[in-house]
Amino acid sequence: MGNPAMVKRKATEKRRKRFEDRLGPGAYLPRAEREKVNAALEKAAAEDKAQQAERAKKAAANQAAKKAKRMAAKSQPKPPAAEGK
Fold first, then answer.
1. What CA–CA distance (Å, rounded) separates 24 from 7?
2. FRET label pair with 5: which of 14, 22, 46, 81, CA 20 to 30 Å apart?
3. With left for phi above 0 and alpha for psi between -120 and 50, is residue 24 left, alpha or beta?
């Protein structure tokens, strides 16, 4: 036999999870707290987007440097091959 209070709490948690899945994080919270949660999520998303842009910029710079290095190596004449005796 289960504890009725525990069963009710479990059902409430399931309902909250369904609300969050459907409506987004903090959907079950009061308005003031929901706004705080949404602001924090937006801030985190903006930071993540900035980090991704920075990573993309670094990757492009690395790729350009590698390409320049390959082109420089290609443009230099090869040393003559040593002849076998």
1. 25
2. 22
3. left
**Model-level pTM?**
0.54
CB atoms closer than 10 angstroms to residue 26: 19
Compute the radius of gyration of the chain from its Cα atoms.
Answer: 30
- CB 12, CB 19: distance < 8 Å: no
Residue 13 tokens read as 């948690």
3-state secondary structure 5-59: HHHHHHHHHHHHHHHHHHHCCCCCCCHHHHHHHHHHHHHHHHHHHHHHHHHHHHH
Q: Each residue of 65-84: pLDDT tens digit?
A: 999 998 888 887 777 766 66
